[in-house]
What does this fold into?
Amino acid sequence: MAGSSVAQAMALYLIPFLHEDMAIVAAALLVAQHQLPLGVVAISLCAGMVSRDIILYGLGAAARRSGFARRLLIGPRVERLASWLGGNMTKVIVVSRLVPGLMFPAYIACGWFGLPFVRFALTSIAITAVYLPVILGLALFFGHAAIAWVGGWAWLAVIAPLAVALLWRTRMAYRNRRAT
It folds into this structure.
């Protein structure tokens, strides 16, 4: 049982690297089914979310050092974006956390443009500290309702619609890329 709990906690740390919302839903179901305590879930998710944010920033910072990437991507419009982003970093991080699809490019851009790392990291931690309890609480509420309603099939009842939504979103992104 202890080994299983450690593996589940590690999975909850890693899943935000792939899809934050799926990680939160999975965590809520683990808590609702009494497989992991809420504290372990919250720490694992929070650490995974903040680690992912910092890695995305780091990817942007590393790409900034690439001469090829600079020649390919940097022009006058992008330089204007850098000054705007610097003045609105906190707002950008908040909106990126709330709007699907914005986090990856926004956090990489923060690293790319060399925005202050400490400010970025502290903002990420603060937003995660507010966002995670609210969303996890909502997911936990609905997780309990799903378990009461469909029992052991709660995983399927919650994850299936999310998987369909993820597949639809991926398909739409693929179509948009082909169209451009």
Summary: The mean pLDDT is 83. Residues 85 and 91 are 9 Å apart (CA to CA). Residues 2-179 form one domain.
